[in-house]
Amino acid sequence: xxxxxxxxxxxxxxxxxxxxxxxxxxxxxxxxxxxxxxxxxxxxxxxxxxxxxxxxxxxxxxxxxxxxxxxxxxxxxxxxxxxxxxxxxxxxxxxxxxxxxxxxxxxxxxxxxxxxxxxxxxxxxxxxxxxxxxxxxxxxxxxxxxxxxxxxxxxxxxxxxxxxxxxxxxxxxxxxxxxxxxxxxxxxxxxxxxxxxxxxxxxxxxxxxxxxxxxxxxxxxxxxxxxxxxxxxxxxxxxxxxxxxxxxxxxxxxxxxxxxxxxxxxxxxxxxxxxxxxxxxxxxxxxxxxxxxxxxxxxxxxxxxxxxxxxxxxxxxxxxxxxxxxxxxxxxxxxxxxxxxxxxxxxxxxxxxxxxxxxxxxxxxxxxxxxxxxxxxxxxxxxxxxxxxxxxxxxxxxxxxxxxxxxxxxxxxxxxxxxxxxxxxxxxxxxxxxxxxxxxxxxxx
Length: 445
Ligand code: ATP
Ligand code: MG
Prior knowledge:
- The protein has helices spanning 2-11, 25-28, 37-48, 58-65, 80-86, 139-144, 168-173, 183-189, 192-204, 210-219, 228-239, 244-254, 257-260, 264-269, 271-289, 296-317, 322-340, 345-357, 368-374, 378-390, 396-407, 410-416, 424-444; strands spanning 21-23, 53-56, 73-76, 90-93, 99-104, 107-113, 153-156, 161-164, 176-177, 207-208.
- It has 445 residues and is of the alpha+beta class.
- The strands form two sheets. Strands 1-8-7-2-3-6-5-4 form an eight-stranded mixed beta sheet. The chain has a two-stranded parallel sheet with strand order 9-10.
- Helix 8 crosses helix 10 (210-219), helix 15 (271-289) runs antiparallel to helix 16 (296-317) and helix 17 runs antiparallel to helix 18.
- The radius of gyration is 28 Å and the shape is elongated.
- Residues 57-58, 70, 73, 146-147, 151, 190, 192-193, 196, 237 line the site of adenosine-5'-triphosphate.
């Protein structure tokens, strides 16, 4: 019977059909209540309308690995228009990769239609990178075009079975990251998969299969052809995964960090810079694990700080005044970085705000400290200062002073102030303002 089937397949010259292994609940361990009510409801509604619908990808993988998923995606054989018609609060998004966002209360479920494997007709750029992906296919084809075996798992909340086409459950249980298909070809189609490999291995503590790991060093330059906005999203995911320290170590081991943050390799080579970045990443990982808020602005501000610092110091040595020199250094570093990573405008604003507040921590006399603690971003800027002190860039006493100052009442604050330095700057400013007053008075006459 099997021989007959095989002969039929081979005689037709088609690739062998690959049925899914059906994994029962006692082997995968997912309990239906671990899946968000919104995702279950989405599957139920689609299934009731006669479609296939499964929770898919990262959420299934994370649940089997014992991690609470960030979000739930659903895969279906319904087209985006059919999905759209079934849910009142839904909309089709994307062009090259169309999906439907289905809203249930505050939760959004991403519903995607099964996609077909790529063939010669697939639109690609000159480096082999796939550009369009809207050809619908079967569930089996959809599984085959996903990246890693552990990401090609489909969970049916109704039957509680997992459909596993590529031994993903086994790989997950053995803690191995394996690619579906030939890793080199898959990296060529989409170089971001190299970054995903590193990120997922760090997040789930997986060993990369040698075939997954080996080509990365040599193929890393392909990352250059990925649009900056996509790289930025992927880097952000990596850095905010709660496993950033591990991921950055692995990026370096794999030789991938050169292409991503062109400055990161330079920074990591300076001992003070490396200490600062690693402290910042440890801090971010801790925050993510504790469920506290993390800000991308703060994170990128830390990653790029030592580059700004070097540039700023060089400018001051060349005679530029501190504040204009800092502004020029910031712009230069952000421009270089922006070519590789499209850091969004809003995040750039946050980064600059944190940087520009740093020299203000040196002023501990007069009214300036009172104004600084009232700044809405004081806390973020102080966290940044603390990292500078912990890494040895500034004395720890400075961060401690500001923590005490911020917590103190007014009288204590007054007593804490340092004596006003008898610099020339202040007097010069007073003189010039008097001159300005005089000029205004003359003009008024
Ligand atoms: P995370 O937990 O960070 O969300 P994820 O694996 O879910 O990780 P997503 O970007 O949400 O990452 O992707 C959802 C699913 O889509 C993946 O699990 C995988 O099956 C598929 N996928 C994502 N990116 C790719 C890619 N570059 N190539 C092939 N399949 C991909
Ligand atoms: Mg996901």
